[in-house]
Amino acid sequence: MDVWRKRLPIAIVVRLNQAQDRPVNTAELAYTDNLSAHGARVISSRPWQIGEVAQVTCLKDEITIRGKIVYCQKLMDDRYCIGLNFPDRRVTWSAYRTYSSTSP
Hints:
Blueprint: E1 13-18, E2 28-36, E3 39-44, E4 53-58, E5 63-74, E6 80-85, H1 94-100
Antiparallel strand pairs: 1-2, 1-4, 2-3, 3-6, 4-5, 5-6
């Protein structure tokens, strides 16, 4: 299976903020719905624009990855599902490494 598209249903608590924001207090706590080596589907409390750059930090590992928003879908409960592409870096969060190495 293509490594770029293999998605794993892993929920991880992350800190999500716009890449240009420096103060941590502008970040929101969010969680992933699924992960792949070069992307994530994240549930957010606000709408994002396609093309925006976001920083996603895994709270467990404190590893931050920058990604570009490729879609934003409104959910029924005033939350938003966003797709992030990480073109310059692979996901190295420990939860992803654990499950990606055990999946067929």
